[in-house]
């Protein structure tokens, strides 16, 4: 029972946690494989944010159980934390909660020692720290660096506070040391991760150590300046929560070239009553004030957002407010979701009364509005030069390289493999719906 295959669903936090799990497993003598058919242990790192996402793991468990080989099946991540022992009914033998990653090898050991099942839904323990081996990172050029785990916001529709628990910030020194180490290893880009990075708030003097020399209106703004001072080539961060998004973050981006010109600021709705029902803690006007601060930045900062359509009770007029907000904000990118009931949340007590057809209509309508805006924005890049981190070959073409700009656009261009892993200048020549094409600037 030595070969482990891990399949990851959900957000970047799960990707980061898979890297952590793989690090611990390898240290305990396990072998990681990306071939499911040769694995003794199949682990699913799961997401529960919408019903469809949560269902996926059950489909996958069924598929693995029908296969001829009979690996041990384990579930980690958000579904593990929420479903707990109920997963044993599905033929799963190992359940690892969202804060039990470091105990994964010990749990597997128990099963190897003869126990039928093992489960751990406990909290992180003293001394368990985030340290991920470079060998397990999803990319040799871009690294995910969690700065805060959990969420205290309890937006009425959202399962995350239940699956990830309360907010816990990582000590600043640990984060800075990790970024410095990544830089020494040749990483070109880090993504500072959290459900709400603006809530970053180390509790004790020693957890704050390392930030003293850096000014900032909030601990997160100070952390950004401290991370910028490491000299890491490119720094991105997600997700920003609108109410806690301080204009000083924009000031920090203005000051430091390596703080990237991209902010992801999910708005969810453009209507004040719906926002109140969602318990987001801000109004449309509050949100627009943040957007204006972002648009006043020295460099143009690309802005992306998330929207939920068909929240319980959302009327057509209220939905139109979302459409008008999307028009007003001119987002560079927009993730639109149809509302999905999450059991146990406050909104689950409300009737899910917008019909599936109506949700679909609103989804398509908004998509259409966004498509036009995005087309305009993307065309605006033609003729401009972008700094692109080359991440690899384009999946769609043999001659193309692909990467992301500092403003987080996908950029494709022709070039040789020697450029992979480097930051290059690309002049944009063509705008596609979700990507840009260009040519290398010598
Ligand atoms: N912490 C981030 C987002 C986490 S979930 C934030 O606060 O913005 C990512 C996105 O999934 C959310 O922004 C929201 O748009 C969507 N989402 C969350 N719960 C949902 C639900 N019950 N139904 C539909 N979409 C949902
Ligand atoms: Fe969910 Fe709201 Fe927390 Fe984001 S801020 S994870 S939407 S509860
Ligand atoms: Fe999904 Fe959990 Fe992330 S619910 S979006 S994997 S925090």
TrEMBL record:
- State which Enzyme Commission number(s) the record gives: 2.8.4.3
InterPro entries given in the database record: Elp3/MiaA/NifB-like_rSAM, Methylthiotransferase, Methylthiotransferase_CS, Methylthiotransferase_N, Methylthiotransferase_N_sf, MiaB_methiolase, rSAM, rSAM_horseshoe
Relate the assembly described in the record: Monomer.
Q: Which reaction does this chain catalyze?
A: N(6)-dimethylallyladenosine(37) in tRNA + (sulfur carrier)-SH + AH2 + 2 S-adenosyl-L-methionine = 2-methylsulfanyl-N(6)-dimethylallyladenosine(37) in tRNA + (sulfur carrier)-H + 5'-deoxyadenosine + L-methionine + A + S-adenosyl-L-homocysteine + 2 H(+)
> Gene encoding it?
miaB
Q: What is its main location?
A: cytoplasm
- Note whether Cytoplasm occurs among the keywords: yes
Q: What Gene Ontology molecular function terms does this protein carry?
A: 4 iron, 4 sulfur cluster binding; metal ion binding; tRNA-2-methylthio-N(6)-dimethylallyladenosine(37) synthase activity
Q: What is the lineage of its organism?
A: Bacteria, Pseudomonadati, Acidobacteriota, Blastocatellia, Blastocatellales
Described function: Catalyzes the methylthiolation of N6-(dimethylallyl)adenosine (i(6)A), leading to the formation of 2-methylthio-N6-(dimethylallyl)adenosine (ms(2)i(6)A) at position 37 in tRNAs that read codons beginning with uridine.
Give the note describing cofactor binding and stoichiometry: Binds 2 [4Fe-4S] clusters. One cluster is coordinated with 3 cysteines and an exchangeable S-adenosyl-L-methionine.
Which co-factors does it depend on?
[4Fe-4S] cluster
Please report the name of this protein according to its UniProt entry.
Answer: tRNA-2-methylthio-N(6)-dimethylallyladenosine synthase
Give the TRAM domain ranges: 379-442
**One term under GO cellular component:** cytosol
State the similarity comment. Answer: Belongs to the methylthiotransferase family. MiaB subfamily.
């Amino acid at each position: 029972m030595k070969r482990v295959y891990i399949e990851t669903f959900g957000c970047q936090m799960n990707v980061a946690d898979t890297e952590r799990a793989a690090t611990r497993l390898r240290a305990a003598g396990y072998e990681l494989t990306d071939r499911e058919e040769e694995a003794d242990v199949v682990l699913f790192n799961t997401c529960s944010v919408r019903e469809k996402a949560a269902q996926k793991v059950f489909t996958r468990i069924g598929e693995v159980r029908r296969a001829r080989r009979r690996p041990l099946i384990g579930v980690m991540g958000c579904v593990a934390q929420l479903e707990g022992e109920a997963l044993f009914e599905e033929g799963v033998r190992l359940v690892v909660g969202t804060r039990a990653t470091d105990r994964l090898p010990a749990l597997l050991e128990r099963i190897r020692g003869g126990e039928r099942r093992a489960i751990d839904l406990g909290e992180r323990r003293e001394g368990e720290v985030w340290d991920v081996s470079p060998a397990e990172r999803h990319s040799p050029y871009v690294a995910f660096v969690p700065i805060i785990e959990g969420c205290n916001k309890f937006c009425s529709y959202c399962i995350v506070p239940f699956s990830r628990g309360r907010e816990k910030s990582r000590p600043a020194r640990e984060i800075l040391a990790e970024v410095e180490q990544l830089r020494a290893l040749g990483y070109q880009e880090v993504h500072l991760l959290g459900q709400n990075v603006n809530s970053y708030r180390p509790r004790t003097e020693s957890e704050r150590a390392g930030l003293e020399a850096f000014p900032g209106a909030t601990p997160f703004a100070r952390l950004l300046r401290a991370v910028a001072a490491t000299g890491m080539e490119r720094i991105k961060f997600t997700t920003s929560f609108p109410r806690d998004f301080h204009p000083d973050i924009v000031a920090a981006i203005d000051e430091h070239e390596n703080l990237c010109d991209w902010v992801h600021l999910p708005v969810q709705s453009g209507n004040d009553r719906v926002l109140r029902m969602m318990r987001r803690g801000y109004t449309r006007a509050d949100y627009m004030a943040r957007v204006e601060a972002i648009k006043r930045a020295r460099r143009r900062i690309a802005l992306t957002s998330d929207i939920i359509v068909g929240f319980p009770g959302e009327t057509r007029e209220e939905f139109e407010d979302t459409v008008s907000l999307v028009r007003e904000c001119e987002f560079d990118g927009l993730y639109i979701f149809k509302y999905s009931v999450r059991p146990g949340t406050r909104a689950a007590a409300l009737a899910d009364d917008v019909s599936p057809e109506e949700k679909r209509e609103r989804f398509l309508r908004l998509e259409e509005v966004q498509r036009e805006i995005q087309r305009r924005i993307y065309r605006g890049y033609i003729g401009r030069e972008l700094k692109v981190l080359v991440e690899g070959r384009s999946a769609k073409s043999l001659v193309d390289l692909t990467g992301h700009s500092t403003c987080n656009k996908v950029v494709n261009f022709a070039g040789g493999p020697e450029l992979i892993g480097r930051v290059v200048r690309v002049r944009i020549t063509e705008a596609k719906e979700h990507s840009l094409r260009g040519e290398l600037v010598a």
